[in-house]
Amino acid sequence: MRAVVQTVGRAAVTVDGEVVGEIADGLLVLLGVTHTDTPQVAATMARKIHELRILDDERSAADTGAPVLVVSQFTLYGDARKGRRPSWTAAAPADQAEPLVETVVRELRQRGAKVETGRFRTHMLVESVNVGPRTLLLDL
Length: 140
Fold this sequence. Notes:
Layout: E1 2-15, E2 18-32, H1 39-51, H2 61-64, E3 68-72, H3 94-110, E4 115-117, E5 125-139
Parallel strand pairs: 2-3, 3-4
Antiparallel strand pairs: 1-2, 1-5
């Protein structure tokens, strides 16, 4: 499982002209799933995201109650080492990835995080205003 975690002043996801997820002063998480990921990996990723000390004064979403916007992003497993057309073979198929993304969201909520999400299997417009900017890649 792979996540790009960014501190944001605001972030939103729009699908077909409707805002389906929106946060202010929190974390935007672009989340990719690969074939070998399990519910245990998803739970570990949720804990890492929630406890990641990336906010001001080395604090985490767990410390501050900052909201988290989770957006599924299969392209994090794109491979463009050969040619100009990326290969997506390392990305898990949607039927496998969707429940694991949902597990991350559920685990974050169980930890007390306020979580918004994008909408799986749709064309999303993702807007963000990065703070810092601070961006980390988590790879489990």
